[in-house]
Amino acid sequence: MHEALFRHTSFNIIDPHTGFKADVFVLDPGDLFNQSSFSRARLSQINQDTPQLFRLDTSEDVILHELKWYKAGGSTSDKQWNDILGVFKVQGTTKLDTPYLKLWAAKLAVADLLVGAIQEASLLGLSLVTARRHPGGTRNGGSATQGVP
0.85 cut: is pTM over it? Predict the structure, then answer.
């Protein structure tokens, strides 16, 4: 955890009783996207039995972070790609701030991946409007390599 704080990276916290895992990301004051993401985050109660509030990224920022890590990991992590599709499955496009997604996807050089995720989500019937495959063709079916931010 101390190294993550020093390097402005991330670490996990796991509740040993419930198995609930939270990813904690350390804000890098020099990263404009992280600043934007942090400013848009919302305070939410995760567990009805616990009054503790946590700052959670918006769905758009989760998608953008995952796209960033997916690209940094060589665009091979099925886990990250499925996380992205999972957000689209839950949110669809009507609940997402599409202009924000497009703006930051372009700035982060992941616009092609965003389009691919939207297209693949559409093929899976996740209430999206376009229907073409992920850029680069078929996704790999082998073992995934976890992308590293």
Answer: no
